[in-house]
Design brief:
Length: 293
């Protein structure tokens, strides 16, 4: 059987985009002062320096801005965001911790620091920061989602549920939160509930043409556990959609092949299963199906 936890490991690029775009806009706490045009120019220079890995001059310019009146909490937070966006997790975490020394109640800083800890493979610290962000700003579906998602990754399925329920209550169009709820219910053995949440995730996808293919692969996993012809047909259709979105997805090819096998169309299934095995040789599922083709 496919390992259900793999269904909710969302790509890094999506997470960074979510953090940098959505978390900021959803925060209910406004900074004490807005940035001036002069500060914007300084941070544009800092960003260019970081982009060229000239960290010493970037730090010097940052400290100069702070000494001239830029709020340190906001300055360190912004530096952390710049580094986070460039996958520099260790440096980002240092600046985000500095920001929190000046303003502990900033939910955004806790959220960004949680993600940095996640990428640094420090799950307990990530969990603490995400939960703190959710507690500081209970009106943010993004904060609630990441708290629940981290608990799910940490194999704390029941503890994850309240945060994920809150995320979809705050934002009924939060497809990723519905996917995470589905994954949690799979782990808890509640396949009927998992199917329901995976369907809600598909309904919540804003732009099917640019959607993360995982949303189209979660539900087939459930539908293809049984032999109901209608569900197998639906599973095949969804898996084909996922395959179209990401042709190099071994999971999509495997699910297409499995659906075809269940429909007695072994000749069509074999190329799909062979492609799945080639894309992910370490995964035995496709080999198992091929042995029965």
């Amino acid at each position: 059987m496919r390992r259900p936890g793999s269904l909710i490991l969302i790509p890094c690029c999506w997470i960074v985009q979510c953090l940098l775009l959505h978390a900021t806009s959803q925060s209910t706490r406004k900074p004490s002062t807005s940035t001036t045009p002069s500060e914007e120019r300084v941070f544009a220079r800092i960003e260019r320096l970081v982009g060229s890995k000239d960290y010493a001059n970037a730090e010097s310019l940052l400290q100069s801005a702070i000494s001239q009146g830029t709020q340190p909490a906001g300055a360190y937070l912004r530096m952390g965001k710049i580094l986070l966006d460039r996958d520099d997790w260790e440096r980002a975490s240092r600046y985000l911790k500095k920001s929190l020394q000046f303003r502990e109640e900033n939910d955004q800083a806790h959220l960004f620091l949680g993600f940095a800890y996640r990428k640094l493979r420090q799950p307990e610290q990530a969990e603490t920061e995400f939960i703190q962000a959710a507690e500081l700003n209970p009106r943010s579906d993004v904060n609630a989602y990441f708290a629940g998602h981290q608990l799910l990754i940490d194999v704390k399925f029941e503890a994850a549920l309240p945060y994920l329920y809150k995320a979809v209550k705050l934002n009924p169009r939060h497809a990723s939160a519905y996917r995470a709820l589905g994954a949690a219910q799979v782990h808890l053995g509640n396949y009927g509930l998992a199917e329901s949440y995976y369907r809600k995730a598909l309904e919540a996808v804003a732009d099917p043409g640019s959607a993360e293919p995982g949303a189209y692969l979660d539900l087939p996993f459930i539908l293809l556990l049984g032999h109901d012809p209608a569900k197998v047909q639906e599973g095949l259709k969804l898996a084909l959609s996922g395959e179209k979105l990401q042709p190099n997805s071994s999971e999509a090819h495997y699910l297409v092949g499995k659906a075809l096998m269940k429909m007695g169309r072994a000749k069509e299934a074999v190329p799909e299963l062979e492609t799945a095995a080639k894309l992910n040789p370490a995964d035995s599922k496709a080999h198992f199906q091929l042995a029965h083709a």
